[in-house]
Amino acid sequence: MPSTPKGSPLLYSYTDYLTWPEDERWELINGVPYNMTPAPTPKHQEILGEIFRLLANWLKGKKCKAYMAPFDVRLVESETIDSMIDKVVQPDITVVCDPQKIDGRGCLGIPDMIIEILSPSTFKKDLGIKLALYESSGVQEYWVVHPMDETVLVFQIQNGQYGKPTVYSAPDMIPVGLFEGFVIPLESVFRDALL
């Protein structure tokens, strides 16, 4: 488990990350570790499961694949060595269209799409630090799902920036920008989720 001495901004790499206890979930953003506890709520998991099911079913037999957390995404170029990697995240859902970015430890490279489902403990990180990280890394499409409001913010890269998100709520159908003709019905995503 990482600890930072008082007054000393200790930064970590993926080499350190690999030594941390397997029963704990961490993210590493610009060398700074973020503990991912507490565990997600049942509502979070139901929303996650439904979005993942819809995506995975649509992608079956296609080049792009969807992955559900825990799944390490190392946001670097593919030739970067472990000791130089300082950005490792575990998005709720990751879509990768280049099979060469997938290895035995997750994704090494920039995914095409990331979906995060907000919780009270991740709200600021998902809409602040991670939004900036995904934008600067070049993630083409970033969705932020708000379970309590039953809304989804969709950010898409244009000229290297996300700009203002498009906001969707049930009964909207969200078009997935990466895949022409594919939409996700929010009625299905939020309908059965527990409060």
Automatic annotation (TrEMBL):
InterPro entries: Nuclease_put_TT1808, Restrct_endonuc-II-like, Uma2
Coiled coil spans: none
Domain of life the protein comes from: Bacteria
Pfam families: Uma2
Domain Putative restriction endonuclease: 16-186
Gene3D superfamilies in alphabetical order: tt1808, chain A
SUPFAM superfamilies for the chain: Restriction endonuclease-like (SSF52980)
Name the record gives this protein: Putative restriction endonuclease domain-containing protein
Species of the source: Desulfosporosinus youngiae DSM 17734
